[in-house]
Amino acid sequence: MLDFLDTHAADRYYLVGDIVDGWALRRSWYWPPSHSELLKLLLDRATRSEMIYIPGNHDAAARPFCGRRLGPVHVQRYAKHRTADDRTLVVLHGDEFDGVVGRAPWLSRLGGWLYRRLRALNRQANRLRGWLNKPRWRLAAAAKVATKRVVQSTADFDAAVVRRVRREGADGIVCGHIHLPEVRQIEGVTYANSGDWVEHCTVLVEHPDGRLELLRWAPAAGRVRSTGDGAPSATGAPPFSPAPSPPSP
Predict the structure, then answer these.
(1) How far apart are CA 85 and CA 63, in angstroms?
(2) Which of 13, 65, 133, 243 could crosslink 75 through cysteines, CB 3.0-4.6 Å?
């Protein structure tokens, strides 16, 4: 995420929650220098561009501040975004649509515990595969995708998304939460999920003409075009302007 922000800038940023994993920090403190570096960069961008922070269920401690400003950052429960091609998108975290979080929080926490254990095993397996010159496994990500798809189905996720968009009189919705990066149409409603910066390294961007596009980012390889809601962009065309120079230390 640092690499992406270092090379791209935008007029407006939406942080759609779970920026800091409060659940994990309650279990044990882990805060390497790169975390502070990222927060400093985000705060610097917020002084240059509009930044809206929508807390998620993992950083819900920030939700009491919704409707206020924390320095240059606007904290909101949800937002409405007008695209360059004149569409209205509801922007929120997305746990509102998750039946597991809404109806059985303990099950969500159990799933989180199992996911962490699976990731630990996944890391050990990939260390061994690296020694053997074999490609990495993404077992933890695959398990999470499968689990989240079950959650979506049982919670009637698609129908809930459509109801919320139509209630707001909007054209689509942007969210995170379930970590499944995708842009698709549901009964004429645009549904866009930005994914995450842990397993998928994805970001949702809007081009100057209003097209939405998912980018998968790796510092070594640069951006890789993924799904979008319009025609593919020209090869190598950046979705944002070049980033401003970083602040002096």
Answers:
(1) 31
(2) 65
CA 110 to chain centre: 22
Coil, strand or helix at 196: coil
Helix (H) or strand (E) holding 109: helix 105-131
What one-letter code names the amino acid at 17?
A: G
Instruction: Going residue by residue through the chain, which has 249 residues, state the pLDDT in tens, using 9 for 90 and above.
Output: 999 998 889 999 999 999 999 988 988 899 999 999 999 999 999 999 999 999 999 999 999 999 999 999 999 999 999 999 999 999 999 988 875 444 445 555 656 666 667 777 777 777 777 777 777 666 555 555 555 555 544 446 778 888 999 999 999 999 998 888 999 999 999 999 999 998 889 999 999 999 999 999 877 666 666 667 754 333 333 444 444 433 333
Return the DSSP state at 91: E
From the number of C-beta atoms within 10 Å of its C-beta (0-12, 13-18, 19+), residue 167 rates as exposed
- Would you say 88 and 169 are in contact if contact means Cβ atoms under 8 Å apart? yes
Residue with tokens 């050990």: 124
User: What's the whole-model pTM score?
Assistant: 0.73
Assigned token pair, 184:
């698709």
C-alpha distances (whole Å) from 175 to each of 58, 81, 91, 191, 241 are: 14, 12, 6, 8, 23
Cα 102-116-1 angle, rounded to 5 deg? 85
